[in-house]
């Protein structure tokens, strides 16, 4: 699908980080945007700062993606006001780390509700106008951790793997409808996703200066949409990890031990 001035696009988790970078890149191409996140002030400031779209004003649509009714009404409002929905990016997510036995049940539920159910509700709501129009594209922002989950991130990785499985099946289900789907697998990206618990981050996590740019990821995602690619990994090494894990989890463990140290794959079997 061509992404340009005629595109009506919706991005969840747009108030900062990857979603904000996607919004900026889309607006730079002239797209009209609907931006979703809980932080109303940040969304209002962002919509005001983005380049204007010829197709009409950008909309700040504050909502919690984990609450189905809120997402449904935000998506329906955008589709009605913009006249249609061409591109929907389910990006909103949260991360909590630590050994599974120490992870508070509330955080297990929070990640499940926002990362997994939030994706399902967003995609479900977006498909309605897209299927009715017989055109559109969905992007699901998973993670490299959805291809090979990491210790101390068992639940986070599970929510990201759920997104992967959902997107893989749905892309096939959508064959012949005019609607397509891409799953994005970011590696470590320089955002504030982990800021709330830097002290709990496992040793295998690098982040900091070694994290990749959200702008580079946003460009890679939009390029993948234009080419109708089934998946996009960024940086590219994340895709190699997925391939290695698919061929042999033991091989992926060995690669990770070499690249990230023993905490990335402590068990040898
Ligand atoms: N950064 C990385 O290294 C990395 C790597 C792989 C995958 N990812 C994935 O990329 C996505 C974006 O992460 P990021 O790095 O950009 O994190 P971020 O900077 O913390 O941004 C997360 C975004 O999600 C929104 N959000 C969180 N909970 C929400 C809720 N209940 N309803 C609506 N919006 C909600 C936040 O807005 P509000 O707080 O205003 O609601 C914010 O806009 C996530 O799915 C994450 O798992 C990130």
TrEMBL record:
Keywords for this protein: Oxidoreductase
InterPro entries cross-referenced by the UniProt entry: KR_dom, NAD(P)-bd_dom_sf, SDR_fam
Domain of life according to the entry: Bacteria
Keyword Magnesium carried by entry: no
CDD domains noted in UniProt: SDR_c
Pfam families named among the record's database cross-references: adh_short
GO CC list: membrane
Molecular-function annotations in GO: oxidoreductase activity
Transmembrane segments: none
Ketoreductase domain location: 7-207
Family label: Belongs to the short-chain dehydrogenases/reductases (SDR) family.
Protein's UniProt name: Short-chain dehydrogenase/reductase SDR
Organism: Conexibacter woesei (strain DSM 14684 / CCUG 47730 / CIP 108061 / JCM 11494 / NBRC 100937 / ID131577)
High-level lineage: Bacteria, Bacillati, Actinomycetota, Thermoleophilia, Solirubrobacterales
């Amino acid at each position: 699908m061509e992404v340009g001035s005629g595109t009506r696009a919706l991005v969840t988790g747009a108030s900062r980080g990857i979603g904000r970078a996607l919004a900026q890149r889309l607006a730079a191409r002239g797209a009209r945007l609907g931006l979703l996140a809980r932080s109303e002030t940040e969304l209002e400031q962002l919509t005001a700062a983005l380049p204007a779209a010829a197709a009409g004003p950008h909309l700040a649509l504050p909502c919690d993606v984990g609450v189905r009714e809120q997402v449904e009404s935000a998506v329906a409002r955008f589709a009605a006001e913009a006249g249609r929905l061409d591109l929907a990016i389910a990006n909103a997510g949260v991360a909590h780390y630590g050994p599974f036995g120490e992870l508070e049940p509330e955080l297990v539920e929070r990640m499940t509700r926002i990362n997994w159910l939030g994706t399902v509700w967003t995609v479900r709501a977006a498909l309605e106008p897209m299927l009715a129009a017989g055109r559109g594209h969905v992007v699901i922002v998973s993670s490299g951790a959805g291809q090979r989950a990491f210790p101390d991130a068992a639940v986070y990785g599970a929510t990201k793997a759920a997104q992967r499985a959902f997107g893989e099946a749905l892309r096939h289900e959508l064959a012949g409808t005019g609607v397509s789907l891409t799953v994005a697998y970011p590696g470590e990206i320089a955002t504030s996703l982990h800021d709330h618990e830097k002290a709990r981050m496992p040793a295998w996590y690098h982040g900091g200066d070694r994290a990749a740019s959200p702008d580079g990821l946003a460009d890679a995602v939009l390029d993948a949409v234009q080419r109708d690619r089934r998946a996009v990994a960024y940086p590219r090494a994340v895709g190699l990890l997925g391939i290695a894990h698919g061929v042999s989890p033991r091989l992926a463990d060995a690669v990770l031990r070499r690249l990230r140290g023993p905490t990335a794959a402590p068990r040898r079997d």
